Amino acid sequence: MEQSVQTRRIDGKQLAADLRERLRQRVAEAQLSPTLATILVGDDPASAVYVRSKTRAARQIGIDVRDHHLPATTSQDELHALLTRLNEDPEINGILLQLPLPAGLDEEALLDTIAPEKDVDGFHPVNLGLLLRGRPGLRPCTPAGCMDLIHHTGTSVSGKHAVVVGRSNIVGKPVALMLLAEHATVTICHSRTPDLPDQVRAADIVVAAAGRPNMIQGDWIKPGAIVIDVGINRLDDGSLVGDVDFDAAQGRAAWITPVPGGVGPMTIAHLMQNTVEAFCRQTSSG
Ligand code: GUN
Fold first, then answer.
1. Which of 121, 169, 230 to mutate to test the pocket of ligand 1 (most atoms within 8 A of CB)?
2. Catalytic residues
3. CA 266, CA 229: separation in Å to the nearest integer?
4. Domain span including residue 51
5. Which residues of the chain have pLDDT under 70?
6. Residue 99 C-alpha to ligand 1 middle, in angstroms?
7. CATH of the domain at 167
8. C-beta of 98 in contact with ligand 1 (< 6 A)
9. Is the minimum distance from the CB of 150 to ligand 1 under 6 angstroms?
């Protein structure tokens, strides 16, 4: 019988509130005037909720927001023209193109259109390339939030074995690079990894970003591991669960993020941080 570990929850909601408050003070004290343009195409209810949350968070910090809500019938050319106009507008410091876009639009080409210095999501190939090379740039928000949550445990990442489950451009690949930059040994697993349970069993740090409810089972978790759950999965009964079986992880993980209230709020707080950073770099202030 393995010894039971006392499992502590990492409060992403509180950590995100603290980061937003620091940004609010910085904006007020240095009299910064950052402006974020948001673009929502179509009527996906979840996307509308996300954009509303981002807009509300921005305004509380003192970031001005220009919302662009376009119909699902908007063409590639129209979106390209809007992005080009926002790139050229000196009053706009950050551009958020909410994903996913309606079918038929080329997401990749539109993300490439956003000026890297205004790419507050950190999705542009230039910003991802800067991350790869370990140089300053706008970092993707969810991976940056994962790193904050790990740092909050007080555990050094250096020398740890980190297992990332999921290989998306938005989370899996960039968080693996961030862990590597802090000297973890990193394994990236995905749907074709044949021995996923054994890979996870070897992890001191697990970042679960597969988008499959309760996929990571309790007995896969190494006693004392840090578990960061990026999944936000809505079940048929309306409840939200992560990619990790949270209840089964109790007594095994040393630290675990809840869903909701873990990674999600950190993503929004980092979008705000990137917007303030983008403003400061563009205006040489702050
Ligand atoms: N859709 C889901 N997550 C995100 C995100 O972090 N940024 C954008 N732009 N769209 C998303």
1. 121
2. 54, 98, 121
3. 12
4. 32-118
5. 1-3
6. 5
7. 3.40.50.720
8. yes
9. no
